[in-house]
Amino acid sequence: MNIAKLRDSMSVTRDAIYLNTGWAGPPPEPVVTRIQTVLEEERSVGPASLAGLNASNMVREQAQSAVAELLNVDAEEILITHGTTEGVHIVLYGFPWRPGDELVTCDLEHPAIATAVAVLRERYGVSVKKLEVPANAAEAEMAELLSAAIGPETRMVALSHIQYSCGLRLPLRRIADAAHRAGALLLADGAQTAGQIPLNVRELGADFYAISGQKWLFGPEGTGALFVARGLSRSLEPLFTTHSLADAWAERLKPIATVYPLQRYSAAAQSTALMAGFAEAVRLLLEIGVGVVEAKTNALADRFRCRLAAMARCSVTGPTAPEVSCGLVSVAVEGWPPPKLVDELWSQWRIATRAVDYPPAVRFSLAAFNSESEVDTVIDALTSLASKPGCRQS
């Protein structure tokens, strides 16, 4: 598999310019085929027959091993989940909070973190320190700002590795070091990183790292994974059971399953077919090479930002420096409310994007399967819309 073959296997590329991978990426043909094959196998032997259960356990292990290779960690440190939000919530709601404990986060966060920390404040009396981080902040500025906010009362730092609304990439290693010096743990939301940039979670210093399967990995929706660093597997209380009950249940499952320590945190049953599609998506990406994907993604994003810089009434709301930017490029067009601009881009040019609220903009996801000609078409479309005074409205 290479990038050209990846693009050819995505039928949406023949009918539209798909620039919303940051929400959900289009699944390539091998992923869809793998899902269909597993569903047919389940129909043949029965999903809960001994053969079906053994096949499901094997698929789960394949998915765990694939994700472990992607993140450069051990399979025993991986829990397959239904998505990033579930992984983040397993950590935030399972942590043994005490009244007055401090959690550090920032104002750019996705609701997966932002909503949960508000609940922690209300439910457990957690002191939430929410920092204002400029959407176009420099790396040193972010590191200094976030590190200075971490103190003796901080028990956890919860941040997205790449901010979903603007594409700002945080200096995670420097933040992790500051957290650990204070005796705190680092939870990272990796929804916008897995599949877009190479990851070595151990070197990044994250204690917990949650990813999505359906975004830059091009897997099915309802899939994802959570990394829990070795030694922390008993540090969280399972959301829907207790450690003692989970241990007893694991003993019963041992004859038919390899039970990893993190299975106690699994929130609900999962589709074997979707897990298989997830594993196949990760396999394809590893075959292409994450470094190759990142290089193509960055080249497209750089082309886009360079052309935007020369345009009137259009501005990038996020970062432009290479060390803090990525394939997510958010753009504000003077006089155009983002939702209306999204509608217009789709209705006139079949360009798929999304609106973001803070900072208000239209977010373009430049993925490896996209092309230079698609970037140029988007620039032409934005130039046309920005030049229409009759459409400018607040």
Describe this structure in words.
- With 394 residues, the chain is of the alpha/beta class.
- It has 2 domains: 255 residues, Aspartate Aminotransferase, domain 2; 97 residues, Aspartate Aminotransferase, domain 1 (Alpha-Beta Complex).
- The protein contains 13 helices and 13 strands.
- The protein has a 7-stranded mixed β-sheet, with helices on both faces. Strands 9-10-13-12 form a 4-stranded antiparallel β-sheet. The protein has a two-stranded parallel sheet with strand order 1-11.
- 47% of the residues are buried.
- The mean pLDDT is 94.
Topology:
Layout (H helix, E strand, L loop, with lengths): L2 H6 L8 E2 L10 H17 L4 H22 L6 E4 L2 H11 L7 E5 L4 H14 L2 E5 L7 H11 L4 E7 L11 H10 L3 E5 L11 H4 L3 E5 L11 E5 L14 H11 L18 H17 L1 H20 L4 E3 L11 E6 L4 H12 L1 E2 L1 E3 L4 E5 L6 H15 L8
Parallel strand pairs: 1-11, 3-4, 3-5, 5-6, 6-7
Antiparallel strand pairs: 2-8, 7-8, 9-10, 10-13, 12-13
In short:
The protein has 394 residues and is an alpha/beta fold.
Question: Main traits of this protein?
Answer:
394 residues; alpha/beta; Aspartate Aminotransferase, domain 2; Aspartate Aminotransferase, domain 1; 2 domains; 7-stranded mixed β-sheet; 4-stranded antiparallel β-sheet; 13 strands; 43% helix; globular
